[in-house]
C-alpha cells in the first residue's frame, strides 16, 4: 500500500472524522488566531504593543500549555497553539521592554 493511500485512509477514517468533530480539535484551531496575530505583529511599531496585555498573554499561554497536558487525553494541538503563542508573546514582551526601557532607545528619542 502506498504512503499516500495509507494517509488518505487514515484521514478519512471514522476515528479521524470523529476527532475533527470535537471541541478537542476546534478549540485549538480557533485559538490559533491569537499566535498568528502575535507573529504578524512582530514587525509592527513597538509603540503599538501593550505591556500589560502582553504579560497577560504570556501567563495565559503558560497556564493553557500546562492544562493541555493535564487533561485526558492530552491535547497536543492545544499545546502547540499556546507554545507558538508563548514564543510570539515573549518576543513582543522583549520588544516592549527594549523600546520603553533600553538606553539605546532613550538616546534616539528627542529630549523634551
Automatic annotation (TrEMBL):
<keyword id="KW-0999">Mitochondrion inner membrane</keyword>
<dbReference type="Pfam" id="PF03650">
    <property type="entry name" value="MPC"/>
</dbReference>
<comment type="similarity">
    <text>Belongs to the mitochondrial pyruvate carrier (MPC) (TC 2.A.105) family.</text>
</comment>
<keyword id="KW-0472">Membrane</keyword>
<protein>
    <recommendedName>
        <fullName>Mitochondrial pyruvate carrier</fullName>
    </recommendedName>
</protein>
<dbReference type="GO" id="GO:0006850">
    <property type="term" value="P:pyruvate import into mitochondria"/>
</dbReference>
<dbReference type="GO" id="GO:7770001">
    <property type="term" value="C:mitochondrial pyruvate carrier complex"/>
</dbReference>
<comment type="function">
    <text>Mediates the uptake of pyruvate into mitochondria.</text>
</comment>
<keyword id="KW-0813">Transport</keyword>
<dbReference type="GO" id="GO:0005777">
    <property type="term" value="C:peroxisome"/>
</dbReference>
<keyword id="KW-1133">Transmembrane helix</keyword>
<keyword id="KW-0496">Mitochondrion</keyword>
<dbReference type="GO" id="GO:0050833">
    <property type="term" value="F:pyruvate transmembrane transporter activity"/>
</dbReference>
<keyword id="KW-0812">Transmembrane</keyword>
<dbReference type="InterPro" id="IPR005336">
    <property type="entry name" value="MPC"/>
</dbReference>
Amino acid at each position: 500500500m502506498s504512503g499516500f493511500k495509507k494517509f488518505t485512509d487514515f484521514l478519512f477514517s471514522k476515528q479521524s472524522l470523529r476527532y475533527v468533530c470535537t471541541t478537542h480539535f476546534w478549540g485549538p484551531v480557533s485559538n490559533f488566531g491569537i499566535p498568528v496575530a502575535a507573529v504578524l505583529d512582530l514587525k509592527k511599531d513597538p509603540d503599538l504593543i501593550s505591556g500589560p496585555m502582553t504579560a497577560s498573554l504570556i501567563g495565559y499561554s503558560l497556564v493553557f500549555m500546562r492544562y493541555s497536558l493535564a487533561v485526558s487525553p492530552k491535547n497536543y494541538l492545544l499545546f502547540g497553539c499556546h507554545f507558538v503563542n508563548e514564543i510570539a508573546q515573549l518576543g513582543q514582551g522583549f520588544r516592549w521592554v527594549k523600546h520603553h526601557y533600553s538606553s539605546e532607545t532613550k538616546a534616539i528619542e528627542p529630549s523634551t
